[in-house]
Amino acid sequence: MPKFVVMFLLAILAAQAATGIVGAQIITVDVTPGHATNHFVPSKTVGAGIDRIPTSAIDHTLTNPATLREVFSAGFQPVTYRQNTDLQVEAWHWNPEGTWSDEKDNQGYFTGSSKPTGFIRYSYGFSLPHRGDDSGSGYSRLTDGDTSTYWKSDPYLASRFTRESDSLHPQWAILDLRNVDLIDTIRIDWAAPYAIRYLIQFWTGRNPFDFPTQGIWQTFPHGEVDAGKGGVETIHLTNQFMPVRYVRIVMTHSSDTCNSHGPSDPRNCVGYAINEIYIGTTDKEGQFHDLVRHTSDREQTSTRTSSVDSWHRAADERSNAGTQIGFDLFFRSGVTQGLPAIVPIAMVYDNPDNAAAEIKYLEARKYPISYVEMGEEVDGQWMSPEDYGALYLQFAAALHRVDPSLKLGGPSFQGVNTDILYWPDANGNASWLQRFLEYLKAHGRMQDLAFFSFEHYPYDPCLNTWDRLYTEPQLVANIMKTWRDDGIPATMPMFITESNLSPSATESFMDIFGGLWLSDYIGSFLSDGGNGVYYFHYLPLKMEPGCDDSQGTYGMFTVNPDYTIDQPLSQYFAARMINFDWLQHDGGTHTMFPSSGTYTDGAGHTLVTAYSVLRPDGNWAVMMVNRDQYNAHQVRIVFRNEEAKTERYFSGTVDAAYFGPDQYKWHPAQQLMDPSHFPLQPTHPLQAYKPGYAAPDGPIKETTVRGEKTTDYDVPASSVVVLRGKLNK
Length: 729
Fold this sequence. Notes:
The chain is about 20% helix and about 35% strand. Strand 25 (about 495-500), helix 11 and strand 26 (about 530-535) form a beta-alpha-beta unit.
C-alpha cells in the first residue's frame, strides 16, 4: 500500500479517535412478520410501584398536585401497590376498622371491615407475638429466654384447613449456632399444640438457605421421636459429640391440643408450638450445658421457621415503622391516573377472610383492579412451595367466592437471577417454581394462577461496576427463560412487579449508569416477551445510606425536606425516553421486533444494544443504548424482511432524542470534615456530607435528522438515543 494512503488512513483514524467515534456498525431490525417478539399496550404494560413509605412522604406527595404532575411526566402509567408487611413478618390491617376473633380482648385473627364507611388514609403492619424468625420487625420467641412466649406454626397449614395429611406439610424450626460446635443433646420446651412425631436433624453442607442443594438434612442417630408427650423433652441425639452448626426440628404429627388462647377458636388448636429450644452437651454426670444464646433481641441464637401463626393483638401495631398507603387515598389521590391497578393481599401472615374482605371493600368502592398479587416475596420467607400452594388454594377459593372473575397470581419472587431452589423433595426436585406448579396441577387448580410475577434487582448493591451494564439483557432474558422452563405456560402473562438496580440504593442509581440500565432493562424485558414491567419507586423519596457511605434513592427525583421535588435524576430522563420518545404514550398496540448489532469491545460485550417497535401511529422507533463509557459510535439501521427478501431504511425526517453526558451528569456527595461547612445533620460527629447533585440536569436533546439508506446515526458515549420515523417505500 502506498505510503500516502497509509498516512491518509491513519489521519482518518486519528480524527475519529479525537471525536470519540470509533468505527461504524450495522443495527439490523428483523421485521419479518412472523418474527415479532411482543405485542403490548403501554398503558397496560409499562408502570411503576408504590410501597410502604414514611407517613410524611404520603402526606406531602399524594396530596400535592404539582408533585404528582412531575411524577406523571415520566410517563409510567399502570401502578402496582406493593405490600410490605409479609417481608417484615407482620399481619396487615389494610383497613384499621374491623373485627377480632377474640373481640373481648382485641386480639386473635383480624378481619378488616368490608363496608366502606370512613376514608382509609393509612394502614399498618402488626408484629406477630408467636414469631419464630429474627428477621423483619422483631426477634424470635424460640430463643428469647422467656418460656412464657412461644413460636406457633400457621394453622392454615394444618390438615383441618388443607384437607391433607399433616405429613404432606411438615413444619420445621432451624437453629443456627453461628459456628460449628460439638453437640449431643437437644432440649425442647414444647407449648401446645406439640409434636407427637418429629425428627431432629443436622445439615451436612454449607449454609442450607444459600446453598440448599449442597448438603442434606440428616437425622441424628437418636433423632427420631414417635411418641412425643409435650412439656420439656430432653433428647440425647448421639452417643458421641458431633460437629454441627445447623439443627432442624421437623414436625409431622400434631397433638392438636389448644394453646394458651383456649379452645374457642379452632385455629388455636392445630399446628405446632415451642416455648424455647436448647442445644448443647451432656457431661458424664448428666449435667446439660447449653450453647444457645437466649435473649430478647437480635443477638439471640438465630432461628428460622417454616411458617408463623398470624395471631396478634391490638397493642402490636407498628405505626412508627412505615406506612402502607390507605386504599382510599391510593385510588382517590389520582396516582393511579384512573387506570386499573395491581393490588396485593397479604397471605403469608394473614387469613383468607381478611383477604376476601379487602376485595369486597375495593369492589364496593368501584376501584378498578387489574390483578391481585398473592403474597410478597414468599421465597424470602423460605416457605416451601407446597405450603405456599396450600395457602394459595385456600385464599384463591375465598377470593373467587367474592368475585369469580378476579385474576390472581404471584408469587412475587425476590429479585434473583437464577432459579429459586429449595431443599429437594422425595423425587430430588429442588426447583421451587416447578414444585408449586405441580402442586396446583395435582389439585386441578392451575386455572387459579392467571399470571406469574417476580421482582428484578439484578446487581449486588455494592458492586455496581460499569461492566455490569453489559449483563442486563442476558440476565433478564435468562431468568424469564428459566421460569418458562420451570413450567410457566407460554400463554400466561409474566410481570416484573418491582424493579431497580439492586436491593439497596446507592449513588449509581442517580448516575447516568442508572438511566442506561433502566433503558436496557425495559427494552430487553419487552423484547423477550414480557407482559408488564413496573419501575420502583414511583413516588419521590429522600436519600438513604448506601454502600461505602454513599447516598441513594429509589426514585426519579431528589427532594427537599418537605418532599417537594428538587431536581430530576437519570432514571427520570430514561423513563421519558422510553415512554414518550420510543413508545407512543397514549397509543394502542405496539409490535416489537428483534434487533441486533455488530460492534463489540473485543471481549464479546455488545456495546450498542437496540430495541425496535412499530408504533400504532405507523412510525418505527429504535431505542439504542451505548454502554461504551468513553466512545461514541455511528450506526446504520437496516430493517430486513427475511420472508420478502427486502431491506428498508428510515426515510425523510427522522425524530431523534439524545440523553447522555451532555444532557446529564451526576456529581457525588462530598464528605466534609468540618460539619459547619454544610448545614446537614452529620452521620457521625466528625462527618457531614454535601449532598450529590446533577449538573447539567436535562433536558433531553430533541432534534431531527435526515434518514436514508446511507445515513450514519451518531450514538454518543454513555447515552440513550431514540430514532423515530417512517421507512422508505
